Amino acid sequence: MFNAGLVVSVVIFISLFGSKGFRVINENQNIIVESALTDYASMPAGTKLTDGELKKLSIDDLFYSEEISDAVMDRMQGKSYKDNCTVPREDLRYIRVLYKNPAGDSCLGELVSNKAIAQDLVDIFKELYRADYLIGKISLVDNYNADDDLSMEDNNTSCFNFREVSGSKNLSKHAMGRAIDINPLYNPYIRTVNGKKICEPSNARDYVDRDKDFKYKIDKDDLCYQLFMKHGFEWGGDWNSSKDYQHFQKTQ
Ligand SMILES: [Zn+2]
Description:
three-stranded antiparallel beta sheet, 17% helix, binds zinc ion
């Protein structure tokens, strides 16, 4: 027999909070179940993902660009985003990628670029990852107090930094977020000053001779070079007055 009095009316609302998980709320707005899923978006660059995690995840979800959040801006302010920065925050994007580190682990990486090249970078890094291309590190230069020398010496791949070209007063294409340096320790910036060859970073002397064979070397046979060319970038290794083997830029 149907007895209305015995029927307990339960109204349940389920609210999703992004990739972070979900909440079940009853009619009195009390949270009755809360489940936090692993929040890969907030994990620091360099975090390694296990094979088990990678099997559960869609790789495409780990490659994306988004507007600069307050949290990312806090990290950049006064470092890569200096007080005199002429690039509006709205023109920059925060990019998350996966990369294979030298040990072959899948790691989370992060970049800041101009919005004009953000999708190029997402696509290129996805192809590099699928091809098991090895990259030392990919983290914001702010982790090195926006000191490009320290970032290069640590073989860190990075993009945006409001700074001048090394040895000049001209703004670098990095200042617009339109240039990226890949595996910089193994692909140094080489220029001649007063007849003397200077290499940056200074600990990259073993990699100045580009006829030698060594890991991470970017040349025209290299997948990284080929992908950046496909996406309309210019390579610093093609310059005449200096050679910047780590450097790709797209200014149009
Ligand atoms: Zn560069």
